[in-house]
Amino acid sequence: MSTRTLDVICLGRAAVDLYGQQLGTRLEDVQTFAKSLGGSSANVAAGLARLGVRSAMLTRVGDEQMGRFVREALAREGVDTSHVATDPRRLTGLVLLGVAGADEFPHIFYRENCADLGLETGDFDDTWIGSARALALTGTHLSTAASAAVAVEAVRLACAAGTGVVLDIDFRPVLWGIGRAADGAARAAISTEATARLQSLLPHCELVVGTEDEIRVAGGSGDTATALAAIRILCPGTVVVKRGAAGCAIHPRDGAMLDVPGFPVEVLNTLGAGDAFLAGFLSGWLAGADWRRCATLGNACGALVVSRHACTPAMPSGIELEEYLARAGDLARPALDAPLRDLHLATTTRRPRRNLCVLAFDHRRQLEQLARESGAPLARIARFKELVAEAFAEVAGAASHPERLGVIVDERYGSGILARLTVAGHWVGRAIEVPGSWPVEFEARRHPGLDLQSWPVAQVVKCLVACHPDDPVEQRLAQEERVTELHLDCQALSRELLLEVVLRRERPVDDTTLARVLRRFYNLGVRPAWWKLEPQSDASWRAVGEVIGDFDPYCNGVLLLGLDAPEAELRAAFATAAPHAICRGFAVGRSIFGPAAREWLAGRYSDADTMRDVADRYRRLIDIWQGLRPT
What we know:
By secondary structure, this protein is an alpha/beta fold. 41% of the residues lie in helices and 18% in strands. 49% of the residues are buried.
């Protein structure tokens, strides 16, 4: 068994992709762009991590916001970023990309003197290179004399350490100074300089991967067969020729050529498909799979990515990949397959947590009522919420696991709090519903998608719905339509949804009622990342757990709400919930801040009294839950 701590080190481009959100139009006419992790090597590193491969990135980023974004995005994907260096002088590379038509994907590289090409030999050493089973680099890093020298040194250290070298030819003429900046999508060109530098590495490669255009460049011939023969003379390893929808051809050093067909899918965007192919292929190669299995994994990853928008965000998880392979024959349009789409989002965008203790103070109607009873102006509510936020910050600042604490806040009285705590990196839920509405209405407008675009992606969309499975049909269907639309908007915008369900008590409630509500939402295709539910009996929790397990085993879990219950009742409710794995914490509000709100709005508590009271009650609930569920 290998004792190496890494599987693959990816050396090369790490950048920011700015993808046009309007499809089927010229890049000139794109109105808005979506930002994501980009760069061929970064795409491969992230794709490998999603497939369970221990990947690391060897690159540089700028000392600016986009550089920090690239580093943080890689880390979120599970990529080792210990050797992502910060360049003090160069900027992180950017790429503008569009989908103008079926075969037209314009893009512009902003990489003049960019950070990743500033990688230096001092950014790595032989020990670290030798800690990986493979070093994967792209031909783009050979495009300048300085960066090529660094790549050659990394390859030398890899060969000395017995680390396999993988070369993705990745020939982009514009990055070699060939052609106009507007021709970033071009792939075919003649470059004796590129041929010479690529061929200098071929004798050290275990695996070489490229399209037919790239094979011709690396082989130094306009004829594919001639170029391939030249590569095979120089390269002791295996050569893989990517052929798009047709699959790939594998030319082992010893043995006959193997042609492995691809998966026919409707193409939305070919950008990133080659990186996905390499990630899938390497995942099989590192696992010791035969060539056909490696190619099948690569082809499947490529097929999934060409059916979706963007590069890294489209990369599949290992679970999703196996699901696709099991049903690929029936999925000509995998991006439109709801189960596969749900699985992709659940396994690549959700941020799972084992336990979460949330201070919920998105309450508007209740605090407005308290203010009126106390004779206080409604404007005072915003100041009260600032005090609650300060109490939260005090508790979080002293917590051993601050990442397990969070808040739910509203925009009406807490817009500044939302911004401040989001920037600070806390778990933040943001209320979207109109308080007390039934069927549910949304704060800004009935159709919330446009508003959600302005929300930070880190904020969890919290929606409270009051319902009963036996509600009148007209009201029930109206509410279900709005919740379903909200769920689809959250999916499209990669926002996590927390659905809070409070049972309406006009009709009988038993141990099956809540499970029936959840089952109905799941049957409608609503799969929130979190549920927020009332305390239940042991039998009801079992029923709820079974429904969630049947429909969405990747659900983050259930947070218990408080309904202004006293601490003793919450302690008992926590004790009932804690043995059930689906219960992952609490999101309690009035039980924590209610007494202080009454006293402060009436003028009987100072600001310090209020913060102390809220912090003490919050700490006690955290201690109660963590005592019952310590991990």
